[in-house]
Amino acid sequence: MLIKRMLAIHQKGKEALQQYHLEHQSRTDALVMTLRDLVVAYRKEGSTEERFAAIEGVIGEQSEEVLKQCEEHLAKAFVAHVRAWLEDRARQTDATFYDSKLEHSVARYLTAVFCFGCNLGPSQTSRSLDAVDRRDVTWVNQRHITIENLDEAIRLVIHAYHRFDLPRFWGTGKHASADGTKWEMYEQNLLAEYHIRYGGYGGIGYYHVSDNYIARFSHFIPCGVWEGSFILDIFEQEDKEPKPETLHGDTQAQSSTIFGMAYLLGIALMPRIRNWKDLNLFRPSQDAHYTHIETLFSDTVDWNVIETHLPDMLRVVLSVKAGTIRPSTILRKLGTYSRRNKLYQAFRELGDVVRTEFLLHLLGDPDLRSMLQSAMNKSEAFNGFAKWVLFGGEGVIAENRREEQRKIIKFNHLVANCVIFYNVFVVSKELQKLALEGREFDEQAVAALSPYIRHHINRFGHYELDLTQHSPPIEYDLPIPTKKRQEKPPGQAALAKRKKKPKKKRKKTATRQMKLFEEE
C-alpha cells in the first residue's frame, strides 16, 4: 500500500513538474517577444520623443507585470546557474553526486537543499514552491541525502570557486580561521545543552573559513565541549584542494596540547588569545637569562619528556594523517591534566615551546596582531552570513536527532557557499564590463570587496499594495450554529460523581472452610 501511494505521489509530482516547465517556457517566450518589440521601437526612425512614445506603446500598462516577471525569472536563474555550473564541474571531475536513479533528481535535490539549508521546513517549502510535495521533500532528505553527499557538494563548490580570479585579491587560501557560533534549539530537546558563555539552549556550528572568504569545513558540536579540540579536524578530509598552512582561532585554540599536535602536523597555529599576558612563557634552560623580558618567563621546558615520548607522538600524528583517528578524539582525551598520562605531558611540553615562540612574535610584531584580528573578522562575518541564510523558523533548529542536526549545518553551509559563489560570479562580470570600458582598478580597492553582500537577494518574496482593490463586506452578526449538550438533573449528576466502593471480599477463615467441607 505504501509503495502504491509513493508511486502515485511521484507520478503527480512528475506531471506537475512538466506543467511547471511549460508555464515557465511560455513566460520566457513572452519576455523575449516583449524585448524584441522594445528593440524595434527603439530603432524606429524619428525624434527621441517619437521613439519613447513607441516604447510606451509596446509596454503600456504592463510595465509592472513585466518587471515582476523579470525579477521572478532572475531569482530562479540563480538556482539554475548554480545547478548548471555544479553539474558541469561534476562531469569534469567524474563525481557521482548527481548520478541517481531518482527521476528529476537535480530538481528534487535542489529543493531539499533550499528547504533545509534555509530552515523553511517541508511544509513551508511546499507552500512557497509550485509542484512540490512536503512528503517528497522529507523522503528525499531521509533516503537520498547523507552528510557525505553534502560534503562532496561543498567540495565541488569550493573547487569551482577557486577557479575565479577575484578571490586571489582576498587571500591565497593558505590561511584559514576557525570559530564557532551558537545555533538556537528548543529547550525541550533532549540533545540541547545550555551554553554558559552565549546563554540559552542550543549547539555550536564550528566553521573553518579560508582567507578568501569561502567556508572550507563545518561541524556541529555540543555546547559543553572545548571548541579548540575540533580546530584540526579539517585535515582529516581527503580533498584535492590544498590544505591551509596556517590556522587562526579564538582563545579556545591556545591550548598547549593543540599547539604541540599542530606543530607535528606541519601547521602554524596562530590564535587570537584573550588576556595572553597572563600566560606562562618557558625558558629553554635554567641558565638562559634575558635583559628586558626576564620577568615574562616563569618555568623551564622539560626536554627529556619530549625526547622520550617523541616516537609515541609521531605515531599519533601519522594515524591522524592516515585518517585512522580524528584529531578531536585525541585532543579531547588530552585536554585535561593527568600525572599518569605521559603522552599528554609530552604534547604539553612541546606545545609550551611552540606557544612561547608564538607569543614572543606576537609581542614584537604589530602586523601579526593586525593579521590575526582581520582573519577572525572574516570568520565572524561568515557566521553572521550563515545565520542570515538560515532565516526560516526564526533561526531555531527544531530537529531532535543528532544526525539531522548535523545535516542542517551542512545544508546551511552548502547554501551559504553557493550564494558566495554566485556573488563572486556577478561581481566578476561587473568588473569585467567596467574594464572593457577602459577603467582601471586599484588592487587595494578590489581587496576591500567582500562576497558576503546580500542586499540583492530577496528571501521573503514580492508583495504588492493595491489600494484600489475593494474590500469584501463585513458581516458581524453571522450566527455560528452549535449543538447544546443535554444537561443531567442535579440529583443524577451528583450520583454519577459518586464513586462506587468495591465490595470487600470476605476472607475464608479456617472455621468457615471446615463448614463448607462438611456440607460437601
Keywords:
520 residues; 2 domains; seven-stranded mixed β-sheet; extended
Write up what this structure looks like.
The chain has 520 residues and is α/β, with parallel strands linked by helices. The protein folds into 2 domains: 144 residues, no CATH class; 241 residues, no CATH class. It is built from 16 helices and 9 strands. Strands 1, 2, 3, 4, 5, 6 and 9 form a 7-stranded mixed beta sheet that branches. Strands 7-8 form a two-stranded parallel sheet. Helix 4 packs across helix 13. It starts with a helix and ends with a helix. The N terminus is likely disordered.
Assembly annotation: single chain
Strand content: 5-15%
Q: Kindly state the mean pLDDT as a whole number?
A: 80
Regions with pLDDT < 50 over 5+ consecutive residues?
A: 1-7, 93-98
Please tell me what the overall shape is. Answer: extended
Count of individual domains: 2
Number of helices: 16
Tell me the helix content.
40-55%
In sequence order, what are the helices and strands, one letter per element? Answer: HHHHHHHEEEEEHEEEHHHHEHHHH
Number of strands: 9
Class of secondary structure makeup: alpha/beta
Radius of gyration: 33 Å
Largest sheet: 7 strands, mixed
